[in-house]
Write a structure and sequence with these properties.
mainly alpha; 74% helix; homotetramer; 136 residues
Chain lengths: 136, 136, 136, 136
């Protein structure tokens, strides 16, 4: 069981989460993994010989890192959510993961790091989508 | 002139910003200041004797730090914006700055740190609003 | 296999990591988990009735989040390390995880969230220690 | 007066800062400015036609962003410092600002964004040095 899932199960007993703990832990885990993968993908992209082809990928990864990081952080503080804040954050996360995943996928046949990163982006996009469906 | 404003004026000459550099630098500066103020306000709130009254303020400040930080970062990379990403980020920033500013203002008569922080939140909320109006 | 481990194994083939990929992925994973646990522990601490007793824990968690996050990020870009930068970052991470783990452990008998968080801190402190031993 | 300086002057009156508020606000301001400048310098570097020459600069800026951000955050919570944590963080910040400033300076004659960024790095390196001298 992930630390995120354990932590969400360990609140004071009279505390009631506004979201399903499994779904929430899944987004937190996926966003955290995606942020890490995008940091390393940027670093690996910069090690490739045909740099000009990697620029779009690097730019998307940089935004993806920052937005996945804030998504994981905001969702990791569930005790007093404001949906006016949480929803646009998760929407931005789904959007950047879709764009970044698409771009990484283009490079996946040539670069293993882009293939792994595309997978992390897809998983995070999917987890954000599940969360947003529940929050409607 | 802020570093943000100088940096935005120093792109390769054939590069055309998608937003007015003054407005953009104003949001970046306000979000950066607000993030810093909220970090310190959290720390100062935790130093107050009547802690239970400060919990809502601390919680809002924690979200405000993270969202202002990502807003400043995403806007500081203007070379290839995706409005599907940028807009919800700035909307989330305006929303959390409004809530955090309201709560800080409640404590402003008692605590100077909340008064300064409320001011930083208001300025960031206003700058985000100006930016969103231009982006419509 | 974690994304961190997969990503580190997917660099261009002529690239040589300066550190053992298993050890490196372990620190990245532990620091990422610890940052997440400390974000949630702060949120859960603020939900406890005896707040004054939780202040030290909250303060340490706040620093631990930021330092674990930067540690994971810097180590996730292994292509061109400067040990003058990497070493003090990991040393700061080991130090804050030790202090934060000690404080969380004090609360572990009363609060499950502090028990889980103490475990995440210990694991990260240990992983940082292994890494620093290898880097000597 | 910067928000950082105002915030540091607004703690509860019985609270005694462990560092001179002017020096502290100077590091916080310089680290925050440097982080922002490095985010934008990365974005501008990626817009240059001779990308291969910019790789070292991009890599250093990426680390500089993360380390300056954590430095500003940790120093913005002065209520309960642990020098075992604060000192290596500021040392890492001084080290990365020196390296990043050196590299940006090499590109300064060709690229205005690197010239501005070099200046932000130098100012932060200097502010960290002043702080470390005081903390001895």
């Amino acid at each position: 069981m992930s630390y995120a899932r354990q932590m969400l199960g360990s609140y004071p007993s009279d505390f009631k989460l506004d979201a399903d703990a499994e779904v929430l832990a899944a987004v937190i885990g996926a966003a955290t993994d995606c942020a890490q993968a995008c940091v390393t993908d940027t670093d690996a992209d910069l090690s490739e010989p045909h740099l000009a082809e990697m620029v779009a990928c690097i730019r998307l990864c940089l935004d993806c890192v920052d937005i996945c990081t804030v998504t994981a952080a905001v969702l990791s503080r569930p005790a007093s959510w404001d949906l006016l804040v949480v929803k646009p954050v998760v929407e931005a996360c789904a959007a950047i993961c879709r764009s970044c995943g698409d771009e990484c996928e283009r490079h996946a046949p040539m670069h293993a790091h882009c293939r792994v990163c595309a997978d992390a982006c897809r998983r995070c996009e999917h987890a954000c989508g599940e969360f947003l469906t529940l929050m409607k």
